[in-house]
């Protein structure tokens, strides 16, 4: 099997990521071998390679956190009926998905529909699940409630807007570029505001007197958060799910103490570890059906075979991308939008 391996932490990915060819190992008793159809390059993968993520690489380390494929072998303790099933691979950052095949515990795969688009399913385990958990696990929301999100043109933002719209929620989306504003308007955001010096005033104007029940925060920028927190209701919440700036999010003291605004956080690996298997199957089953129906999706900008990994990783690090970059390990063709 072919797989991409991280040989050193930090540095230029052109030097630290290499393509290896190894014999396909046999699965252990509780493992399955999955032939990978597609696997995305996420920001978390790049942070992992740089040594800046919640899991530190044990080099040489297999790369790729999530993906979709088909079970081709099963260990003795795994239901033999799983062989032939299409599954998504849940992220661990220990079992690489940037590979033609990968060996993972049977508990780290979940069956998904045959008819759904493989590229969309490949991105199901992280960003759609993050959006789902943000909406379901922190604040009890009712149709008509307002939620806010910055980093709204990110993949998580796209899924949040789509899922919120289906739930009858109103969304205030904050972005940094007019092109991104057009994009999130097209997705169905109810109010879109450009970041800047007068952000707080523009948010107040856009809400027409309404208050946010919760702000989903992905920038880590304390200055921006300070402009957004006045729009949150007393006793409301800020939930951090990312930090695009690399800073630690912080609340203004008055909002934290006098208004009771809480700051909480979401990390996908903790959620996967602490969520019962039954609920994981329910959540991913629901999300997979939405993918199959075309109700949720992310833009795919390009796909690459493994032997074009340098080009793929360079592409994935571009700031002006409009969509995701994926590996299609068993398809020799690549597509570039």
Could you please describe the fold and organization of this structure?
The protein has two domains: 2-126 and 276-336, Medium-chain alcohol dehydrogenases, catalytic domain (Quinone Oxidoreductase, Chain A, domain 1), CATH 3.90.180.10; 139-265, NAD(P)-binding Rossmann-like Domain (Rossmann fold). The model has no long low-confidence stretch (mean pLDDT 95). α4 (127-137) packs across α5. Strands 3, 5, 6, 7, 8, 15, 16 and 17 form an eight-stranded mixed β-sheet that branches. The chain is globular, with a radius of gyration of 20 Å. The protein is built from twelve helices and 17 strands. The chain has helices at 13-16, 43-50, 118-122, 127-137, 155-166, 178-187, 199-207, 222-228, 253-257, 268-274, 277-293, 309-316; strands spanning 2-6, 17-21, 31-41, 61-62, 67-74, 86-89, 101-105, 109-111, 146-149, 170-175, 191-194, 212-217, 232-240, 262-265, 300-304, 324-327, 335-336. β15, α12 and β16 (324-327) form a beta-alpha-beta unit. The relative contact order is 0.15. By secondary structure, the chain is α/β, with parallel strands linked by helices.
């Amino acid at each position: 099997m072919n797989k991409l391996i991280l040989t050193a932490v930090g540095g230029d990915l052109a030097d630290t990521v290499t393509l290896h060819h190894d014999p396909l190992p046999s699965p252990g008793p509780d493992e399955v071998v999955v032939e990978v159809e597609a696997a995305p390059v996420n920001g978390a993968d790049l942070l992992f390679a740089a040594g800046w993520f919640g899991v530190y690489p044990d080099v040489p380390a297999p790369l790729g956190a999530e993906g979709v494929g088909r079970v081709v072998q099963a260990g003795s303790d795994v239901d033999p009926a799983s062989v032939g099933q299409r599954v998504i691979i849940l992220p661990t950052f220990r079992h690489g998905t940037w590979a033609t095949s990968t060996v993972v515990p049977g508990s780290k795969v979940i069956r998904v529909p045959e008819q759904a688009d493989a590229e969309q399913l490949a991105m199901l385990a992280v960003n759609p699940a993050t959006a789902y958990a943000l909406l379901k696990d922190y604040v009890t929301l009712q149709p008509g409630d307002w939620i806010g999100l910055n980093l709204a043109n990110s993949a998580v933002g796209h899924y949040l807007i789509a899922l919120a719209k289906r739930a009858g929620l109103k969304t205030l989306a904050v972005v940094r570029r007019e092109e991104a504003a057009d994009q999130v308007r097209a997705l169905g955001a109810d109010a879109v505001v450009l970041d800047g010096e007068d952000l707080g005033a523009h948010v107040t104007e856009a809400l027409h007197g309404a208050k946010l029940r919760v702000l989903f925060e992905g920038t880590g920028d304390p200055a921006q958060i300070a402009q957004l927190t006045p729009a949150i209701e007393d006793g409301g919440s800020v939930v951090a799910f990312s930090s695009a700036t690399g800073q630690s999010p912080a609340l203004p003291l008055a909002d934290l103490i006098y208004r009771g605004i809480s700051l909480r956080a979401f990390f996908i690996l903790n959620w996967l570890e602490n969520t019962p298997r039954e609920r994981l199957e329910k959540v991913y089953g629901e999300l997979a059906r939405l993918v199959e129906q075309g109700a949720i999706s992310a833009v795919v900008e390009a796909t690459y075979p493994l032997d074009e990994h340098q080009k793929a990783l360079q592409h994935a690090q571009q700031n002006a991308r409009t969509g995701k970059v994926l590996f299609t390990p068993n398809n020799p063709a690549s597509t570039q939008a």
